[in-house]
Amino acid sequence: MKIADIQLPEGYRPSEDEEFMCPNQRAFFRKLLLEWAEQLQEEAEKTVTIMTEEKAIFADPTDRASLETDRNFELRTRDRERKLISKIKRTIEAIEENQYGYCEDCGVEIGLRRLEARPVTDLCITCKTAAERQEKVTRVVEDINFDT
């Protein structure tokens, strides 16, 4: 049976009592991700509609600058969300290929609560912490090299 065809019971939430990444759990996360992607897509469409309909003419340069700043912020936000939608799609593919829920670095189970909090995560907390620590060290080294 395909994950897309699974009908979850009303109010279903993954449990530690089940086998990790059993079909119901995979169906739950797939549904969660699809809803998230749909929400992001709707927000992007609203932004495009508002920006194309907005024909504000400002005599005051400060008002115009404020509008441009708001637009730039909105576009940066939508760009981040576009990248997130791509990651959501890749994650859904991983679910369908039964590759979801395991750390890409060490292979351990990521954990249901972590996946619920951040369903697109692909690293366990230990590997994510190590990666962030390494990223911080790299930034410090780059800053030192830049300053010299």
Architecture blueprint of SSEs:
Blueprint: H1 23-53, H2 61-96, H3 112-117, H4 125-147
Briefly note the structural class of the backbone: mainly alpha
Biggest sheet: strands, sense, closure?
none
Number of separate helices:
4
Overall mean pLDDT: 89
Radius of gyration, in Å, reads 21 Å
What are the defining features of this structure?
mainly alpha; flat; 148 residues; 0% strand; 4 helices; Four Helix Bundle (Hemerythrin (Met), subunit A)
Please explain how this structure is put together:
This protein is mainly α and 148 residues long. It has a single domain (3-147), classed as Four Helix Bundle (Hemerythrin (Met), subunit A), CATH 1.20.120. The chain is 65% helix and 0% strand. The protein has 4 helices and no strands. It has helices spanning 23-53, 61-96, 112-117, 125-147. It is flat. The termini are far apart. The mean pLDDT is 89.
